[in-house]
Write a structure and sequence with these properties.
single chain, 207 residues, two-stranded antiparallel sheet, globular
């Protein structure tokens, strides 16, 4: 990840400032950020969430750690994990006025417009990998902390959580021991220093 908008007049690669940014705000080491006059590249590579099915068996096997890949059950075809959905987009044939309904306009028959598609059934399993190349222990802890916060807030993906879409129950495996407590302690120990750094960084009103 990397990105943002530059507000400075010219690029300014200040290595010491970038190191200070990573030290105080370790999540920027992974996600990257935009300082007022330079875009900082992150170290996190985000993989695709693959549906675990017969068609993706090779990808799943290659992505899993050896200890898990050997116990992979026989996966069924992808069509067994899909289901049809259908909605109706209704035209306002009758307009509500207070507690009364206005008569049909011009006697037309407004049946509504059906639209639908396919969705993945509940209980389907996906595999998604994060690769944080050369990340520090503190940055890895910040990533785990963010994932834990996401879980406590509902663990939804996509933009239709209000309709019941996109709720997941994550299972996390890491190739090294990681604890979110390291990042929590970092925030507790450096709260004032972080605020001072951010205030100084954007002292002139840059965003």
């Amino acid at each position: 990840f990397n990105g943002g908008a530059l507000d400075g007049k010219a690029p300014n690669v200040d290595v010491r400032r970038m190191e200070e940014c990573f030290r105080l705000l370790p999540h920027t080491e992974l996600l990257g950020c935009s300082l007022p006059d330079v875009i900082v590249t992150g170290k996190l590579d985000m993989g695709i969430a693959w549906l675990c099915c017969a068609e993706t068996t090779g990808i799943i096997t290659a992505s899993l750690p050896a200890a898990f890949a050997g116990d992979l059950p026989l996966l069924t075809p992808s069509h067994e994990y899909l289901s049809r959905i259908q909605y109706y987009r209704h035209d306002a044939a009758r307009q509500r006025i207070g507690n009364l309904l206005e008569s049909d306009r011009d006697g037309a028959d407004y049946a509504g417009m059906p639209h639908g598609g396919e969705h993945v059934i509940p209980g389907a399993l996906f595999l998604c990998a994060f690769h944080a190349h050369g990340a520090s222990d503190l940055a890895a802890s910040a990533l785990l902390y963010a994932l834990q916060r996401w879980c406590t807030m509902g663990a939804t993906v996509g933009g239709q959580s209000s309709r019941g879409h996109g709720v997941v129950q994550p299972y996390l495996w890491t190739d090294r021991e990681v604890s979110a407590d390291l990042y929590r302690q970092h925030l507790a120990d450096h709260t004032d220093e972080i605020r001072a750094f951010v205030s100084k960084l954007y002292a002139k009103g840059e965003k």
